[in-house]
């Protein structure tokens, strides 16, 4: 990432990284996420809402996702923005194509605005990395982002059309990555009935002391940490750094 791209990410709240991974790598990741989604959706209590399903805690379920905890491009960007002590969360999102597919309205990933702000309020900053594992066309619905909206704590769009005139639409290709502040307002355009499946790998970085609160009931069994630690050793990550990146934070 260039210095100009980094400053744009800081000011606009998002940046675009074309071809972060190869198409072949994207297909392998997509297959792994889709297989896990099929497995989990077959268990009692699991369901896809409007064709959408999240596979949580991927590194604990499949070894091939463990390396994303310490990705050599994304982790340095996250540390430059959030500080050296960060936690990584790696998930998959799959949206099944067809008539049951719906658009996502304007939303943020980490709401936390208070009015008035307490004197020592700590902003809930986070970095979300959207790695696209399919080509997105107008048929599937573009990703739409509102530049700079992460800086306005009080803003909340009254309806889905409010930000359309000033928003930026992206049609990422397979292997592309979109980086976004967790409080950047964004949505997807409505898909057509002929839309194909869409699968994304989501990597979120937060300060290490923030605790995520996702439900994982009805999902595949969580594996022990040993294959993660093996990957960490292979990548040269110390045990203490590994613990911090996977949520075992100590001051």
Write the layout of secondary structure elements.
Layout: H1 3-12, E1 14-17, H2 23-41, E2 52-55, H3 74-82, E3 86-95, E4 127-132, E5 143-145, E6 168-170, E7 177-181, E8 186-188, E9 198-207, H4 226-234, H5 239-245
Structural class: alpha+beta
Unreliable runs: none
* Overall form: globular
SSE ordering: HEHEHEEEEEEEHH
Helix content: 10-25%
Distance between the termini: 30 Å
Tally the helices: what do you get?
A: 5
Total DSSP E strands: 9
Radius of gyration: 18 Å
Strand content: 15-25%
Average per-residue pLDDT, rounded, comes to 84
Instruction: Report the sheet with the most strands, covering strand number, pairing sense and barrel closure.
Output: 6 strands, antiparallel
Name a few traits of the molecule.
6-stranded antiparallel sheet, 251 residues, alpha+beta, single chain, 5 helices
Overview of this protein structure:
It is a single chain. With 251 residues, this protein is an alpha+beta fold. It has five helices and nine strands, in the order H-E-H-E-H-E-E-E-E-E-E-E-H-H. The strands form two sheets. The chain has a six-stranded antiparallel beta sheet. It has a three-stranded antiparallel beta sheet with strand order 6-5-8, with no helix packed on it. The chain is globular and about 50 Å long. The model has no long low-confidence stretch (mean pLDDT 84).
């Amino acid at each position: 990432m260039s210095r100009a791209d980094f400053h744009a990410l800081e000011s606009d709240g998002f940046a675009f990284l074309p071809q972060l991974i190869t198409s072949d790598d994207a297909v392998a990741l997509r297959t792994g996420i889709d297989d896990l989604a099929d497995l989990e959706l077959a268990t009692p209590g699991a369901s896809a809402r409007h064709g959408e399903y999240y596979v949580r805690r991927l590194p604990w379920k499949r070894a091939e996702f463990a390396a994303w905890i310490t990705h050599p491009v994304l982790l340095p960007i996250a540390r430059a923005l959030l500080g050296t002590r960060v936690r990584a969360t790696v998930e998959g999102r799959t949206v099944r194509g067809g008539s049951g597919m719906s658009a996502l309205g304007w939303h943020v990933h980490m709401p936390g605005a208070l009015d008035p702000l307490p004197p020592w309020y700590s902003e809930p900053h986070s970095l979300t990395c959207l790695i696209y594992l399919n080509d997105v066309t107008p048929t599937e619905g573009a990703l739409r982002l509102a530049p700079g909206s992460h800086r306005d704590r009080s803003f909340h769009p009254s309806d889905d059309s409010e930000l359309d005139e000033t928003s930026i639409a992206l049609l990422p290709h397979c292997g592309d990555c979109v980086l976004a502040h967790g409080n950047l307002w964004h949505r997807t355009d409505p898909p057509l009935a002929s839309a194909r499946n869409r699968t994304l790998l989501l990597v979120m970085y937060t300060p290490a002391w923030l605790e995520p609160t996702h439900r994982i009931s009805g999902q595949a069994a969580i594996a022990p940490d040993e294959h993660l630690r093996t990957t960490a050793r292979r990548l040269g990550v110390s045990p203490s750094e590994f613990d911090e990146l996977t949520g075992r934070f100590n001051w």
